[in-house]
């Protein structure tokens, strides 16, 4: 029934919730299309074909379905609201410190991530013990882990929130401009050297800048803009994207611009943030329907778990499909697209089943952000989360990285759960 709001959603920005759920659903559906295991006629082995990339229209479709910038925009909104609420509702000894808030948010990311890393390490070890062909196992790892860049990018955004929100309150456009200047500097280095991996220096500036666009929604800036101005800004973002990608140094394909991240993602994020504001009344009305609220809760109740586990599950489903001899239509045929429908249904059922099991790890990741903590263990934990993600971007997922990532994340979770309060000065009150 329309017109009522589930108590779980009361007091929330329903359009932001809708955007977050839609972004997660888009990511899962996109990866279902991008994972296709086919038999190599020459060797009889297996290889993955990202079928949509074979079509000439794929690049412009990525302008519509590359939804990760929007995910960071709504994440920025949520972070600003959370940090501002924590600072305004507690005072004195009960106040939330920057380190305490970052610790709590980083743990919500690191703990479910640790579960995945450990599972991958154990699964890899088990596969080798039972004698699974090493070529198959090693070939599967890059596909299973190609989404783990998110951990590094989002971890950096979380760690920067106390600083970026303070800068935004004082000089919102100047603080955003500083981040964009850093992005431009990295782009100049990347283009000037001809070495694309210099772009990894932009992992922080690009995603933190996109994340900060969410602050403009949180402080009401976007809400105060007339619709025509939002349309102009969205169009300007896409126009800038068209101009930028007309040059050889930037790809028209938004998947290629993802890792290492480029200025193209910020322009896409700006357009998506403006479109989200334009669609807010419609999304708000949609989220007042009980069936939509139910879908939003099923998909969005454990967002980190769903994001982290969906790709390994999809790869496993496709592997089983290939092993049992499921239909393997030509990748450029209509039959291939038709068979994606039942495969998508199977993948979604499997993903939601795994999330229902693994989601308890995310559910138990909450700690009191008001607990007094020092920065050192929090920063060490941040490094332990970010470094494996950066290495995955650069070298893809390898057996050694799986093992190292598992150890790093377990240590990070241990540090975040057992941080000690700052030492009191001699003579200070208890």
Automatic annotation (TrEMBL):
Keywords: Acyltransferase, Membrane, Transferase, Transmembrane, Transmembrane helix. The chain crosses the membrane at residues 21-38, 58-83, 109-127, 139-161, 173-191, 197-216, 228-250, 262-283, 304-324, 336-361, 373-391, 397-416. One of its GO terms (molecular function) is acyltransferase activity, transferring groups other than amino-acyl groups. It comes from the Bacteria. Residues 15-355 form the Acyltransferase domain. The keyword Nucleotide-binding does not apply. The keyword Repressor does not apply. Pfam families: Acyl_transf_3 (PF01757). InterPro entries: Acyl_transf_3_dom (IPR002656). This is Acyltransferase. It comes from Kocuria subflava. The lineage of its organism: Bacteria, Bacillati, Actinomycetota, Actinomycetes, Micrococcales.
């Amino acid at each position: 029934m329309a017109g009522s709001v589930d108590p779980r959603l009361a007091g929330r920005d329903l359009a932001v919730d809708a955007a977050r759920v839609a972004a997660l659903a888009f990511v899962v559906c996109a990866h279902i299309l991008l994972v296709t295991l086919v038999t190599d006629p020459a060797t009889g082995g297996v290889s993955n074909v990202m079928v949509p990339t074979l079509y000439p229209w794929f690049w412009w479709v990525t302008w519509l379905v590359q939804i990760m910038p929007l995910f960071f925009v709504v994440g920025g909104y949520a972070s600003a609201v959370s940090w501002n609420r924590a600072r305004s509702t507690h005072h004195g000894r009960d106040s939330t410190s920057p380190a305490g808030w970052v610790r709590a948010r980083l743990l919500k990311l690191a703990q479910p991530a640790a579960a995945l890393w450990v599972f991958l390490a154990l699964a890899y070890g088990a596969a080798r013990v039972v004698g699974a062909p090493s070529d198959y196992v090693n070939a599967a790892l890059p596909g299973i882990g190609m989404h783990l860049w998110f951990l590094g990018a989002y971890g950096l955004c979380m760690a920067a929130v106390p600083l970026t929100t303070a800068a935004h309150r004082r000089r919102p456009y100047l603080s955003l401009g500083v981040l964009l200047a850093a992005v431009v500097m990295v782009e100049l280095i990347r283009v000037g050297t001809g070495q694309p991996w210099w772009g990894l220096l932009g992992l922080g500036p690009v995603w933190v800048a996109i994340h900060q666009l969410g602050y403009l929604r949180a402080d009401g800036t976007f809400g105060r803009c007339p619709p025509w101005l939002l349309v102009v800004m969205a169009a300007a973002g896409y126009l800038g994207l068209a101009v930028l990608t007309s040059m050889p140094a930037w790809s028209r394909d938004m998947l290629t611009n993802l890792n290492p991240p480029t200025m193209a993602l910020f322009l896409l994020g700006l357009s998506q943030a403006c479109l989200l504001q334009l669609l807010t009344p419609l999304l708000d009305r949609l989220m007042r329907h009980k069936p939509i609220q139910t879908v939003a809760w099923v998909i969005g109740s454990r967002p980190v778990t769903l994001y982290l586990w969906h790709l390994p599950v999809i790869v496993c489903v496709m592997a089983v499909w290939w092993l049992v001899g499921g239909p393997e239509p030509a990748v450029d045929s209509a039959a291939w697209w038709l068979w994606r429908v039942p495969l998508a249904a199977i993948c979604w059922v499997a993903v939601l089943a795994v999330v229902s099991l693994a989601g308890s790890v995310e559910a138990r990741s909450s700690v009191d952000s008001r607990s007094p903590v020092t920065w050192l263990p929090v920063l060490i934990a941040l490094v332990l989360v970010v470094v494996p993600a950066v290495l995955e971007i650069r070298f893809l997922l390898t057996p050694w990285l799986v093992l190292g990532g598992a150890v790093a994340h377990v240590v990070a979770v241990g540090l975040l759960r057992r941080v000690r309060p700052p030492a009191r000065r001699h003579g200070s009150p208890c």
